[in-house]
Amino acid sequence: MPQPRVVVDALGGDYGPAVVVEGAVLASREFGVGVSLVGPERALRDELARHGAAGSVEVVDAPESVGMGEKVTLSTIRKRSSIQVALERVRDGKADAFFSAGNTAACWTIAKTVLGTLEEVDRPALAAVVPNRGGRTVLLDVGANAEVRPEHLRQFAVMGQVFASEVVGLHDPQVGLLSIGEEATKGTPAVIEAHKLLSEDPAINFFGNVEGYDIMARVVDVIVTDGFSGNVALKVTEGTARVILTEIRNAVTGSWRAKVGALIM
Question: pTM for the complete prediction?
C-alpha cells in the first residue's frame, strides 16, 4: 500500500505554525505519513530545524494566510493563501488529504471552490465522530450549514452512512434524524419533510427520529441535523465532559483519603 500523503495548512489555528509543524513531524516519524507543509517557507524551515526534521518534510511556499476571524469574501478565495495552495495540491493529485486547524468557513468555501462536490451533493457537511456507550457515532452537520433544506438533510444522511461504514468501520450503520421527539410529526417543517425523504430512500438505513440524549447512547450510528443544531449539540457535549472531568479531578485530589482511594482504584 503506498504511503498516504497529507498536505497541511501550517498557518492554521491560534498556535500555527509552531504547533502545526510539531504535529506534522510526529505524524511523519511515528505513523509514516508523507507530509507537505504549506506556509511561509523560511518560517517553516526554521521550525523544522528546531525539531531536527530539516529536509525530512516537504515545504511548499505560501506567504499569505486567512485569519481565524476573517470574513470569507471573494478576495479571500482569490488570494494565494496557505489553504488555497494546499487544496490545489489535493486537486492536482499531489496529496491524498488536507488538514487545517484554521478558519473553518474559509476551509469549507475554498475546498468547495477548488475541489467541487459530487454531482448529487449540493452542500458539503462537517462531520464529527463522537464517543457513545461502547462505540462511536457520526454527527453531521456540525457547523458548515446553519440553515438547510430537507433535501440537504437527505444528502447528509447518505454521506454520513458511507463515512461511518468506510472510514469509521461501522457495519451497516443506521441513520437517525435529530429532532425534539421520536414521532415523525415532531420538529420544524424542514425536519418533518426530511423524515419523509429519509424514510422513502432505499439507500438509507433509516431508524427514525432521535433526540439530544441519544447522541451518546448508541441508539444509532449516524445522526443527521443542520449545522446550527449540530454545532450546539457538539459543544454542549464537550462542555459537559469538561465539567465532569474537572469535578472528578477535584473529588480525587480533595483530601488525602480520596488520593489513597484513587491509588487503590
Answer: 0.81
